[in-house]
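subagent[fold] <- orchestrator: predict structure for attached chain, return tokens only, no commentary.
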Amino acid sequence: MTNYNQFHCIHKSIRSIQNQSIKNLEIIIIDDCSSDNSTEIIRNYQKEDNRILIIEHKTNKGKIKSRSDGIKIAKGKYITILDGDDALIHKDILKNSLYIASLGNLDVVEFKMMTFKKGNPKKWENHYNISTYNIIYQPELRTKFFTLSPYIILENRSICSKIIKNKILKKVLNKIGPKYTEDYIIIYEDTIMVFTLFQIANSYYYLKEEGYYYSKDDKIKNLSGKSNAPEPNEKIIKGMDPVKFLQFLIEKTRNNKVERQLIYNEIILADKWWNFYKNVNHHFNMIYNVLDEMIKSRFLLNNQKERLILIKNRLIKKEKNLLKISIK
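subagent[fold] -> orchestrator:
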């Protein structure tokens, strides 16, 4: 579990783990240099429950670094990841997931996520059309299954609501590498982990049982009205994280049709959501490198390449305008 300034909701998260019918748990909580009283709350829980281990960061390092620190020391056969403002819905979800995993010695079992906004529950969209599948094995997991929809990454970026074999998650961290686990990434940190997980895991099962409480309210603001997200340092600029993620995809995928198409879809979605031409600012060379690599790919259609060229031309135009302003 990761925590950053979640004094108002950390109780429900910890209790949802303690109340699980499986009691043989190791509970690792990474506090990312909180400035509220949430760290003290966690310490009080630790006094009453010797299963709790606390890692306290002296400086704020971001969620992907916090998660990697917890994964590295975890001893259990399976790991589940929980954000400090979320919770497990019912007491048997880990037991039921582990039962399924043990039957097939599976690498990943995912359970349903419920989102809550303004106190109202809403089912997470079934982004897999999973009804036609049972256990998914490689290579389908990395190719056909992972790319069923052009929106698959965007909709399935959460590394939560799953139990994952410990050794598989450690391989994920090794493949991601220290460049990304040590970097301060605000968004796309889930997507990087899930994308890598689906490349490495050999087997996957979707358990059609609601088990994860994802609170949109708590992620937006706490009771004081302030955002839970840490304030970005001067190096973090809106629009830069999507570029980092696209660079990650370029670096970590082979040059084949499925994965080039996957990256193309993500570029289009990221541009739609983040408007590269408005938000990239002085990181033009980063996105140019990604776009150039994709434009020269033999696996994309001409109309797809033309769309990427349009994005690049918008950026070139913006860069020239910024240069004029700075000269003045």
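orchestrator: received. Logging for downstream: The CA atoms of residues 52 and 299 lie 49 Å apart. The chain is about 45% helix and 15% strand.
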